[in-house]
């Protein structure tokens, strides 16, 4: 196919012009470059050195400039120098320094701060009070990220915002941690101290460790009102707890009774349902338990024979997974319809251990198809058996004591033994008596105390209970009527089911750390409840931690006193928390809040998913997968932190192994903004959140992209910016990016109103990365590189930066503040001192920029750009070539391999394979090519669209010149082509603009010519001919091929192969 020169097509073309971004070809360097593995190592070492120097310079800048600034654009700002240029690289440590303390000092987080855009509306939330037992983990960070984004958005919208911080005393958890620490450091058990001495140790520990949570919240950027911080054991909370207890008692909703409770023998206390972990066992499983000298087997079904009284050889075989409770059996039950036992109805059985007579009773709750169809009844140690026993008037026998040993009712041979040691002794006795009938694997669910790791027992104890049926019915009705909104809505089913089956709530705990129950023992078990101290001993028990936590929304605002905060901010506007707390905390807040204040504590509940590690496991310190958010923010070596923790040697070994596997090189520095953005990018409607550090690193790269974009924007945006309301686009590209910005604002507003933060992160990520950085900035770089340049793009860039950063501020507060403070101020009018109190962009105020039709049409332009880049990739033309060139193709001489055409590389040089291995440069021919592009469409409207975006097309497609080929004009011969659907074609001309032959002692001079795909082999033959003549010693100027008008050769060293 003959090659036709460009000029022959020029007359019918529309607007063929070179792109401003591509200067003419510059001769390629003739200097040989080192290569190979040694070069890679040196480059890597040099890069690391530059990064260390850059980080040291940034840190020195932070330390050296943390003084009161002089006259700058922001005279109110302290501890940050904003006068100089942005540092060349994004550093979270540099960006996040000093801002938080300034925000707090200026009072931006207080509801009393006067916002110019004030709406008169209020927005109030309370943080779910984290346990004071130590530090926050990633699950807490998710809560903070979501809540703070919502709080900052409402504040920027002009609402009077109150976000109350606080922490929970965490009775069982804190007492367990302090007990463990006392034993580890001093070898002292709690019961070796008196109550007052132990409480002093707990308060001492709280003062030392309690501040860590506040530090973490500040590191996460939580915009809390710290002047209103509360603790569930402070004086105000204690008054509220006492008042609530007395009011519930006086209303008949609180009483003392002996009932079965969840009991931790290791803690010697009742525990709540949420502290009971249901562990499924597939069959026989050995566990090590606290206080038990040997491992214990679970997941086994023991068959025991109960002889029928008066019927020699007749027996009823019963299966049980808990043979240690046999001494507490008071009956055997069968289903009334089970024909196997019809003849035994009303008969009595002999107890296999004591020989006492037990009744055989019938009850429809027994499942005849399970096991032998007969069950033993132990009312004192099984909730199901307690209900069955109550129906039949059976008296319970408590055979397991508070400490997990057997009681005197078991007889001298078992009394005082650990219950699982007694189990083996009972099994031996059954074998000796000939009443043991077998042992088999049996899948089961074992209740484990999450605080101590011990098996939970069910014991009859005198405890305080709250009647929940009436309050629970009101809570269920609130959701059903819509007065209380649960989001996502699928949680409503669990809510209704739980409250329709709710039982009474045991609120007393046998602990020393917590709120003492305001009840006084007068005579025996008779008690008096009151707000003031009475005659008689105070009840030694404390209240369940969840009782004081259920009061938090109104107790934190001053209840029971009528405070201004209570009148102004209660009920709360929203409660946001993890879905795992829906029933145990949210449900109880609704019950007690409605009962004690007469109104719902909040009208909306937002529930987020559980955070798990990348393997889907629940966060656990003993597994080593609990991450402190600060470790991700600042980077960390995790092994040292484990050793400083409170794990025993076995748990430490497991956790250390897991961390070495998951984080062999530790955790790199990611920054607060990246962590928050990654957490918020997960939708609330999904399943559990499996967060990985690589995902946070990806968000850090996004931060770096924004940083670099602002470094570019701040150069042309030095002129006085135009307010968005007065800005009119001066080109189609300006109109497109402003329309994309308005669309992003609309998406963000929609996401915040729906409280679906993943919509916001997607919108912001797409605007900053794909619209602004990848398209608009690249398109206007050639325009801004010329001086003077058009005034439109700098003003558009400023508006994109200003509005875009304000859209980003609720999610990335530190980066947004750092960059927004450096933007030039608009003339006239007072600007907000901080982006966190600046007005949030309102979608309707940017509606005049919206051009959905233009955005849809521009997508066709982007398709053309993709086609052009695909063509360049096909012919190995990379973006990294000097502008105006088509990247080099290479011919490498090699005696053993012959001349071979190599591809294009970013380095601009390619050597033969054997030469690279030998570590010495071979001779290389580099050909530079330029590309001209023609677009042709059969649709007139599409042709006009391409004409309007000719220059951006060339810039974004990395082409030297772009033009239009009118419909019906003949297709150029010899041009590469690609189709754009059914209506348009893209044609690309490949033209040689220069060549460079490089070696150690010889070179080809620059030549001119053209390259076509079909002539590639001919080119190789021509150059091979030239090389052969040169090797023969000829000094004449050979004519290697028709592609080069002149060339000369001076002999040099041959190829190393």
From TrEMBL:
Catalytically driven reaction(s): tRNA(Val) + L-valine + ATP = L-valyl-tRNA(Val) + AMP + diphosphate
- Where found, per UniProt? Mitochondrion
Q: Which UniProt keywords apply?
A: Aminoacyl-tRNA synthetase, ATP-binding, Ligase, Mitochondrion, Nucleotide-binding, Protein biosynthesis, Transit peptide
- GO CC terms of this entry: cytosol; mitochondrion
- CDD domains in the cross-refs: Anticodon_Ia_Val, ValRS_core
For the Aminoacyl-tRNA synthetase class Ia domain, which residue ranges apply?
99-522, 539-691
Superkingdom, natural source = Eukaryota
Q: What is its EC number?
A: 6.1.1.9
Give GO terms for biological process.
valyl-tRNA aminoacylation
Name the InterPro entries on file.
aa-tRNA-synth_I_CS, aa-tRNA-synth_Ia, Anticodon_Ia_Val, M/V/L/I-tRNA-synth_anticd-bd, Rossmann-like_a/b/a_fold, tRNAsynth_Ia_anticodon-bd, Val/Leu/Ile-tRNA-synth_edit, Valyl-tRNA_ligase
Biased composition range(s): Basic and acidic residues: 42-56, 1008-1019
What SUPFAM superfamilies does the record point to? Anticodon-binding domain of a subclass of class I aminoacyl-tRNA synthetases, Nucleotidylyl transferase, ValRS/IleRS/LeuRS editing domain
Instruction: Supply one GO molecular-function term.
Output: aminoacyl-tRNA deacylase activity
Domain annotation Methionyl/Valyl/Leucyl/Isoleucyl-tRNA synthetase anticodon-binding: ranges: 734-881
Q: In this record, what's one Pfam family?
A: Anticodon_1
UniProt keyword DNA-binding present: no
For the keyword Ligase, the answer is yes
- Give the start-end ranges of region Disordered: 25-57, 1008-1041
**Family of the protein in this entry:** Belongs to the class-I aminoacyl-tRNA synthetase family.
Task: Tell me, in a sentence or two, what this protein's role is.
Answer: Catalyzes the attachment of valine to tRNA(Val) in a two-step reaction: valine is first activated by ATP to form Val-AMP and then transferred to the acceptor end of tRNA(Val).
Q: What is this protein called?
A: Valine--tRNA ligase, mitochondrial
Q: What is the lineage of its organism?
A: Eukaryota, Metazoa, Chordata, Craniata, Vertebrata
Gene for this chain:
VARS2
């Amino acid at each position: 196919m003959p090659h036709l020169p460009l000029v022959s097509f020029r007359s019918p073309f529309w607007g063929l012009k070179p792109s401003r971004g591509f200067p003419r070809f510059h001769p390629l360097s003739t200097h040989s470059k080192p290569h190979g593995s040694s070069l890679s190592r040196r480059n890597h070492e040099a890069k690391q050195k530059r990064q260390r120097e850059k980080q040291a310079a940034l840190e020195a800048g932070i330390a050296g400039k943390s003084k009161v600034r002089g006259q700058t654009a922001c005279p109110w700002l302290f501890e940050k120098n904003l006068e100089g240029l942005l540092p060349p690289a994004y550093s979270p440590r540099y960006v996040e320094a000093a801002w938080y303390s300034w925000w707090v000092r200026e009072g931006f987080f207080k509801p009393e701060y006067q916002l110019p855009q004030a709406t008169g509306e209020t927005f109030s939330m309370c943080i779910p009070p984290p346990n004071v037992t130590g530090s926050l983990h990633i699950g807490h960070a998710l809560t903070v990220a979501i809540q703070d984004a919502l709080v900052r958005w409402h504040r920027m919208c002009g609402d009077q915002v109150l976000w109350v911080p606080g922490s929970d005393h965490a009775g069982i958890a804190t007492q367990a941690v302090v007990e463990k620490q006392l034993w580890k450091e001093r070898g002292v058990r709690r019961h070796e101290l008196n109550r007052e001495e132990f409480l002093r140790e707990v308060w001492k520990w709280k003062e030392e460790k309690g501040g860590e949570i506040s530090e973490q919240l500040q590191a996460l950027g939580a915009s809390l009102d710290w002047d209103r911080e509360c603790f569930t054991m402070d004086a105000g909370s204690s008054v509220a707890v006492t008042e609530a207890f007395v009011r519930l008692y006086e209303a008949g909703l609180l009483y003392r009774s002996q009932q079965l409770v969840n009991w931790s023998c290791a803690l010697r206390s009742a525990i709540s349902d949420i502290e009971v972990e249901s562990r499924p066992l597939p069959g026989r499983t050995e566990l090590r338990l606290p206080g038990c000298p040997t491992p214990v087997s679970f997941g086994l079904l023991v068959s025991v024979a109960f002889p029928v009284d008066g019927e020699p050889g007749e027996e009823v075989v019963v299966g049980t997974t808990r043979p240690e409770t046999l001494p507490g059996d008071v009956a055997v039950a069968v289903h009334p319809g089970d024909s196997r036992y019809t003849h035994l109805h009303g008969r009595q059985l002999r107890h296999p251990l004591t020989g006492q007579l037990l009744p055989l009773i019938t009850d429809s709750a027994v499942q005849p198809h399970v096991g032998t169809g007969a069950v033993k009844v132990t009312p004192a140690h099984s909730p199901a058996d307690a209900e069955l026993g109550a129906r039949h008037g059976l008296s319970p026998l408590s055979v397991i004591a508070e400490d997990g040993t057997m009681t005197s009712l078991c007889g001298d041979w078992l009394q005082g033994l650990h219950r699982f040691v007694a189990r083996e002794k009972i099994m031996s006795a059954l074998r000796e008596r000939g009443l043991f009938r077998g042992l088999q694997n049996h899948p089961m669910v074992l209740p484990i105390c999450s605080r101590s790791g011990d098996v939970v027992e069910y014991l009859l104890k005198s405890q305080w209970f709250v009647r929940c049926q009436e309050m629970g019915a009101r809570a269920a009705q609130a959701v059903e009527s819509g007065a209380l909104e649960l989001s996502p809505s699928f949680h409503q089913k669990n809510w209704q089911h739980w409250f329709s089956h709710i039982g009474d709530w045991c609120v007393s705990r046998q602990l020393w750390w917590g709120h003492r129950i305001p009840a006084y023992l007068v005579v025996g078990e008779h008690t008096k409840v009151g707000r003031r101290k009475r005659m008689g001993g105070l009840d030694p028990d404390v209240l369940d931690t969840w009782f004081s936590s259920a009061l938090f929304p109104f107790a934190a605002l001053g209840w029971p006193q009528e405070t201004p905060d209570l009148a102004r901010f209660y009920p709360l506007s929203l409660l946001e928390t993890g879905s795992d707390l829906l029933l145990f905390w949210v449900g109880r807040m609704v019950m007690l809040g409605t009962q004690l204040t007469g109104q719902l504590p909040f009208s909306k509940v937002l529930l987020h998913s559980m955070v798990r590690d990348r393997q889907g496991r629940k966060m656990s310190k003993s597994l080593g997968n609990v991450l402190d958010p600060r470790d991700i923010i600042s980077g960390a070596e995790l092994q040292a932190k484990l050793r400083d923790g409170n794990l025993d040697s076995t748990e430490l070994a497991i956790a250390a192994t897991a961390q070495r596997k998951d984080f062999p090189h530790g955790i790199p520095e990611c920054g607060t903004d990246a962590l928050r953005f990654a957490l918020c990018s997960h939708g609330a409607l999904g399943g559990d959140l499996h967060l990985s550090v690589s995902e946070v690193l990806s968000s850090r790269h996004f931060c770096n992209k924004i940083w670099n974009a602002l470094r570019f924007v701040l150069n042309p945006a030095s002129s006085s910016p135009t307010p968005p309301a007065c800005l009119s686009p001066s080109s189609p590209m300006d109109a497109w990016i402003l329309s994309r910005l308005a669309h992003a604002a609309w998406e963000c507003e929609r996401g915040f109103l729906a409280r679906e933060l993943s919509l916001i992160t997607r919108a912001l990520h797409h605007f900053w990365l794909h619209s602004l950085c990848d398209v608009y900035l690249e398109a206007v770089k050639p325009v801004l590189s010329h001086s003077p340049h058009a005034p439109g793009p700098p003003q558009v860039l400023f508006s994109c930066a200003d509005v875009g950063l304000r859209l980003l501020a609720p999610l990335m507060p530190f980066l947004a503040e750092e960059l927004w403070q450096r933007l030039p101020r608009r003339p006239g009018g007072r600007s907000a001192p901080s982006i966190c109190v600046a007005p949030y962009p309102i979608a309707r105020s940017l509606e005049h920029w919206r051009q959905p039709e233009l955005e849809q049409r521009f997508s066709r332009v982007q398709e053309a750009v993709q086609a052009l880049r695909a063509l360049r990739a096909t012919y190995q033309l990379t973006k990294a070539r000097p502008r105006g060139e088509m990247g080099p193709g290479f011919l490498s001489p090699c005696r053993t391999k012959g001349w071979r055409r190599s591809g294009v590389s970013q380095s601009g040089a390619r050597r033969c394979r054997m030469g690279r291995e030998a570590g010495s440069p071979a001779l290389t021919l580099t050909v530079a090519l330029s590309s001209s592009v023609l677009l042709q469409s059969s649709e007139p409207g599409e042709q006009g669209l391409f004409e309007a975006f000719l220059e951006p097309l060339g810039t974004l497609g990395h082409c030297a010149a772009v033009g239009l080929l009118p419909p019906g004009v003949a297709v150029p011969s010899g041009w590469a082509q690609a189709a754009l659907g059914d209506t348009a074609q893209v044609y690309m001309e490949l033209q040689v603009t220069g060549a460079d032959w490089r070696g150690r002692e010889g070179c080809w001079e620059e030549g001119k010519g053209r390259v076509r795909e079909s002539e590639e082999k001919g080119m190789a033959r021509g150059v091979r001919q030239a090389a052969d003549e040169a090797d023969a010693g000829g000094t004449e100027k050979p004519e290697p091929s028709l592609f080069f008008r002149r060339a000369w050769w001076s002999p040099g060293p041959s190829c190393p192969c």
